[in-house]
Design goal:
This protein has 754 residues and is of the alpha/beta class. The protein has 25 helices and 12 strands. The two termini are 38 Å apart.
Length: 754
């Protein structure tokens, strides 16, 4: 029974359907239209928040915010939100075992859905799409209420509701819900060992399985087939289907069918007389049962906590209401007594202080009005400055990233050119420095981005540690050519050649530390040493030491050198720097869970140590999927490149042509629309920031006549600003410039191959 309910929730709570909202009318009043638009936006935000809270097991918040969302949704006739939030709240009440409230909400949702459908039938102006969505709402409500009865082990009313939903789902050709409904009825009949009835619905369930059906669906469908054959005393057929079910469940990570699958597998083997095999299978089921127990224990704690919070919230509301009533009565009584006692005194002194009090209040009011005016002016100025700063940073980011894309792209093209093979090392150094400069630009303009990054968001790429350090050293030599230094690189032989982790962050750390050492050391020695420390699980510890014989750092400077944007200077070296190096290093190491240790003495040099953990490359390679399996993976494809920048056009066109594609270029959104109408393309690479018509507007126009062609945003704009746009939903994917070659090609192949 638990398998049935959990399996249904993922589909019923949030079906992939779209509801038509009732129009606000032909009201021409711009104020009312604006207010409605704000409510629509608010409702959409609350719906997403409520859904997220449910999936995080915050059932009290899902219920509390859900009530507010329902109220707003009914004000604007947003039926999509009404029925999805009703479903969420009802299931939240089921989770905290408040079955009374769950039944009430599910029943009200069903009645409301049927009433809306009845009104549509009477109305001659109702759209076919509206009637379609009304049927979907009724199906959802029927399944929710059926699930409620199934949880209460009341199979008969549950099956009755499921059967009422089947004709509606058949009318809409809704195979997903037809699968669910037949599966649920089959499950309930199998539990009751109604073999004949169960067999019909088991077969019906399998009619709605196709090659595209997800493994979790196919797993539970095969499980029911196996259970049916076991009940029919057909152990051979039962074992065959149960094995398939277990294999599919293991692929999907669905624990519940694994437990039940191994249980019935063991019973079937026992029916065959294979008791040793049955015993081994029971042990396997117990392993998964123990694993599930841990998860259920955590969920149970969260459920009890949510129930307690909700009860506490309701009790607080009641207590507050009672306290307010008591306070009101007490205030009235005390006020009456007070006025009786002091009425004569007030009348006596009132005339004496009336005039003075009036003057003071008037002066206070004038001062208050003046200060409020000053505050509002300051607030408006602050908001204007904040907006101007945001716009400025956004524009600078885009303007700097665009030429960097050109530099990195052209260096990639030149590296592949065999005619200039003699400059291969120079080009690789150019590309390495350009990549670092791009990363530095991001940190200068968005230093807080490092603080907001989570550890699980760090990149995972394979890199050669020795090559990385050599590139850092080569780039750092140019910083002090007047007094060149000697560089020593010492790498522990126990460290694997290839490692797996965030290569860019490590490059930033080393290039800042080694760069500082180069700037403040004249004709000296800089040592970069990496030793292998104690491993942690499947990760190895790298102990980095960067030592120089430079001017050193005073004790006073050492106290705040990582917190203040400042660097020391000394005689013979007047380089001031960007004043961001060591603070950036500190933040990156903190993100990796590491600390920096600095020891320095003026005139004797500086030592900097830190530890980082990486996965050995030999193990990590097996986890990396290389989708570019041949020299020309894009051969035979025709791609449209939309960009208003000539250099970017050249770089992108040349780059995809080196992988076998043919490409055409559009210099504006209008050109892209015209070319898409007159010519067939396999994919469109769409720039975002373009004059006259930006990439979002061009995509909207293209989608009016072509909904199938993949459109990928290829832009230097920040990720947050792209995905935050509503029209981004019309695009298929996003690539931020500059990009890594393998990521670029794999993204294109992912959508072209569909």
């Amino acid at each position: 029974m638990r398998l049935l309910i959990l399996f249904v929730l993922a589909i019923v709570l949030f079906p992939s359907i779209s509801y038509t909202q009732v129009s606000a009318g032909t009201e021409s009043d711009s104020t009312k239209l604006a207010q409605r638009a704000l409510k629509v936006k608010r409702v959409d935000s609350l719906r997403k928040f409520t859904r997220n809270q449910f999936y995080r097991n915050n059932y009290d918040l899902a219920i509390e915010v859900g009530e507010e969302t329902l109220k707003l949704a009914r004000e604007i006739n947003d039926y999509k939100t009404i029925f999805s939030i009703s479903s969420i709240m009802g299931n939240a009440f089921l989770k905290i075992e408040d079955t009374t409230q769950a039944k009430r909400i599910f029943t009200e949702a069903l009645v409301e859905a049927e009433q809306i459908q009845a009104n549509r039938i009477v109305s001659k102006d109702a759209l076919e799409e509206d009637r379609y969505n009304d049927d979907r709402s009724i199906i959802t409500a029927l399944i929710d209420l059926g699930n409620y009865y199934a949880l209460q082990e009341k199979a008969e009313p549950a099956i009755k509701l499921y059967n009422e939903a089947i004709p509606l789902a058949e009318k809409l050709h809704d195979t997903s819900h037809l699968f669910i409904l037949n599966f649920n009825i089959a499950e309930l009949n199998l539990d009751q060992e109604n073999i004949k009835t169960a067999e019909y619905y088991v077969m019906q369930t399998n009619n709605y399985i196709s090659n595209s059906t997800v493994d979790a669906y196919r797993a539970v469908a095969k499980l029911n087939v196996g259970k049916l054959h076991y009940l029919k005393k057909e152990p051979g057929l039962a074992i065959k289907n149960l094995r398939e079910s277990i294999e599919l469940a293991e692929k999907s990570g669905f624990t519940d069918p694994l437990i039940e699958g191994y249980d019935f597998y063991a019973k079937a083997e026992a029916l065959n007389g294979n008791y040793s095999a049955a015993y081994a299978l029971i042990q396997k089921a117990d392993e998964y049962r123990a694993e599930k127990y841990k998860t259920d224990k955590i969920e149970a704690i969260e459920t009890v906590t949510a129930k307690f919070k909700l009860n506490q919230f309701q009790q607080e509301l009641k207590a507050q209401a009672l306290q307010n009533e008591v306070n009101t009565q007490t205030t009235k009584r005390e006020t009456t007594i007070l006025w009786v006692k002091i009425a004569s005194g007030i009348l006596l002194i009132f005339s004496l202080f009336l005039f003075g009090s009036y003057r003071k209040r008037k002066k206070l009011l004038i001062d208050l009005i003046h200060k409020n005016k000053q505050y509002l002016e300051a607030k408006e100025k602050s908001e204007e400055l904040s907006k101007a700063k945001t716009v400025l940073f956004s524009n600078i980011t885009h303007e700097l990233r665009t030429p960097m894309y050109g530099i990195i792209g052209i260096s990639n093209i030149l590296i592949k050119d065999k005619k200039i093979k003699s400059h291969d090392e120079d080009l690789k150094s150019l590309k390495f420095s350009a990549n670092y400069l791009f990363s530095l630009i991001n940190n200068v303009l968005q230093l807080t981005q490092i603080e907001n990054t989570k550890k699980e968001e760090l990149e995972k790429t394979k890199f050669n540690l020795e090559n990385l350090i050599n590139n850092v050293v080569e780039s750092s030599k140019f910083l002090n050519e007047e007094h060149p230094n000697n560089y020593k690189i010492i790498i522990d032989k126990k460290i694997p050649k290839y490692l797996f982790g965030d290569e860019v962050n490590l490059t930033q750390v080393l290039i800042n530390i080694v760069g500082n050492a180069s700037k403040f050391t004249n004709d000296g020695t800089i040592t970069i040493q990496v030793d292998r420390g104690a491993d942690k699980g499947n990760e190895i510890c790298l102990q980095f030491l960067v030592k120089d014989t430079g001017i050193g750092i005073s004790k006073e400077k050492q106290e705040n050198i990582f917190d203040e944007f400042a660097q020391t200077t000394g005689s013979g070296n007047q380089y001031q720097g960007a004043r961001l190096g060591l603070p950036i290093v500190k933040k990156i190491l903190e993100l990796h869970g590491s600390e920096i240790d600095l020891k320095s003495e003026e005139g004797k040099g500086t030592e900097i140590r830190f530890d980082l953990y990486y996965t050995p490359g030999s193990k990590a390679e097996a986890q990396v999927q290389n989708t570019v399996t041949n020299a020309l993976p894009l051969k035979g494809t025709h791609i449209l490149v939309v960009d208003d920048n000539k250099i970017n056009q050249l770089v992108t066109q040349k780059y995809i042509e080196t992988y076998g594609a043919t490409a055409k270029v559009a210099g504006s959104g209008a050109d892209a629309i015209r070319m898409t109408k007159s010519e067939e393309f396999d994919l469109i690479l769409m720039d975002i920031n373009m004059p006259e018509m930006n990439g979002f507007e061009a995509t909207e126009r293209i989608r009016t006549f072509n909904t199938d062609i993949p459109i990928i945003a290829l832009t230097a704009v920040e990720l947050e600003k792209v995905v935050g746009e509503h029209s981004f939903n019309l695009m298929n994917d996003l690539i931020i410039k500059p990009y890594k070659n393998e990521v670029f090609i794999e993204t294109l192949l992912k959508h072209i191959s569909k």
